[in-house]
Structures are given as structure tokens and as C-alpha cells.
Predict the structure.
Amino acid sequence: MTNRPWTGSGSAVPQSSQSAPYRYIVSKGPLHEEIELADNMWGAEFVPQTKVIPLVDLVITHGGNNTTTEALHFGKPMICLPLFWDQYDNAQRVAELGYGVRLDTYTFTDEELHGALDGLLGDEGLRAKLAEAGAEIRRRDGVRRAADLIERAAR
């Protein structure tokens, strides 16, 4: 286990995570120049998620459709910190299905975040369950199938 959580953009995770014994990859987004990262973090304005997520052990995300789908595609557990719209529903479903943890974005404590990290990273059963789910999603080859359907409909 590399103990490399992927951290989505924004939120208070950088400040809370500097004391945890993990390494982080952080997508800093449009405020990248204002975000200072701790020594156990690396980040950039934009990070190619589909290249990075397969390399990490866990995804910390706001729970938007893209990141949630990509984390499931690659079989990664999630810590969800929703901000708005679809993120609340996705975070709730991730938690209900046992694929991760939903924390309150604005009031979570360091102990809650570190407990979620430790619990998810240490859960071998969850890792196996998500690896199996990710393999099934990739086996279905949804991108190619969708492209074929679109091409057929356009004819």
C-alpha cells in the first residue's frame, strides 16, 4: 500500500492532512497560487485524474459525478466532502453502499478525517470489493459501447 490519497480541489483537507502519516496528490484548481501545501503533499492547478487515480489508494473528493465515477471505475474508496448539487447525493450513496465515508465539509475534525483515512485504507475487504467492482466496470467497456451507440444513432 502506498498510502497516497488523491485529494480533489479546494476544501480544508490540506491543512487537516499535514499531520497524517500519508502522502497526498492535490488538484488545487483555479486558486492554486493561494493554496500552500504541507511537505507530505504535491499539487498543481490541474492534475489528470484518470492518470493519477489508478496510482493512489484512496480518493478524497467533493463527490461530483466525474470523480465519483472515476474512483469507482478504478476501484478506489472515497472520502466525500460535498459542497453542492449532485455531490450531496453521490456522497450519500457512496456512504450508504459502503464504498467510502461522507464527512461534513465545513465541520469535520482532524480526528474524523484521520479516522476515515485509517479505516478505509486498512479495510482489506473493502479494497477487494472495490477492486472487483472496478474490474467489472472496466470489463463492460462503457465508453466504447456508448460511442458505438452514438455513431449508430447518427447514421
Observations:
- The chain is about 45% helix and 15% strand.
- Strands lie at 5-7, 24-27, 41-44, 58-61, 78-80, 100-102.
- The chain has one domain: 5-154.
